[in-house]
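This section describes the prediction task in plain terms. A model, or a person checking by hand, is given the sequence of a single protein chain and must write out its three-dimensional structure as a string of tokens. No templates, partner chains or ligands are provided. The sample shown here is typical of the held-out split.
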Amino acid sequence: MGKKRVVVIEGEDASPEAVQPTVALIDKLNLGIEWVRPPVGDAGISLHGSAFPEEAREAIDESDATLFGATSGKSAPALFYLRWGKSTYANLRPSRWIPGYKSPLAKPEGIDFVIVRENLEDLYLMAEGDLEELRPLGLTSLTARRPVADMGPGRFALKVITERGAEQVVRFSFELARRRKAKGRPGKVTTATKHNMLRQSDGLFLEVAQKVAASYPDITFESLIVDNFAHIMTSAPQKLDVAVMPNLYGDILSDGAAGLIGGLGLAPSGCYGDSYAYFESAHGTAPDIAGQNMINPTATLLSAVMMLDYLGFVEEAARIEKAIELVYAGGRVLTRDQGGTASTTEFCEAIAENL
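The expected answer:
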């Protein structure tokens, strides 16, 4: 395996305090990864007058993956390029409880499922406007029983589901379920859509999923209305394996899934395309604790585990994940959000000792 090149974008506020020790921990494994830190955000503005200069774009294009922290806005242009510019259409959000996680549930044992969020379409096209703009189209509301433009003054947002977008993220999910089944998981894919009301858009997503499912006879397939999915996710999450859904539902429900196991500080994320992937923690930049050395780096560490696995460092990824599990099982060196008193530095030192 040749030398890997990884772009690092630390993000803003407290995010660098989680990214920097994560990179340092990976370096202890002597993998020979070349870390590239292009000027993004404040650095890009200072050097090039742009938050996302061409130098940063070229660095991403020439890399094997990107490790991204979290952004409060200044690094957002880079994030947009990583998503839409690199067509990373599948946002994988695992939720797995391990002993030591401070879950709000009485019995979190056995929670181990993944939400795969379609990452490019749906309402996130950000195609919005005034209702009057719709008048030339003559669109009529089936519920209000009148032209949509006559309901104003008001605004609209365009929800778009394409056959190609649905097919590629659903197929990604079935392949993931197949890999998880080989490791002892149930081998099940669940769709979550509002196809009973949004028959054209969400209905198409479900229709495509049903067609893809036919080519995976070894994987169980079920479709749920998204309301019912939310109920099952919170009342019996152990029944889930791989869940795939349109963008907005996945964005909201994956944060809810993180809450089941103990919070966003434990929630990793990876965004995959056909030829590129980037990895980021699911939490925000935590400006209220910036500079205090107290952010929980677990989400960033687990995102890096996903990245190492993607890059082919499977054994090394498993070593870091096992070290994290040992620290939580010990319960002595945990950050404040998990009921401990350890600083970010102390927590990462404990992980390193368990490698």
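For orientation: Residues 163-182 form the longest helix (20 residues).
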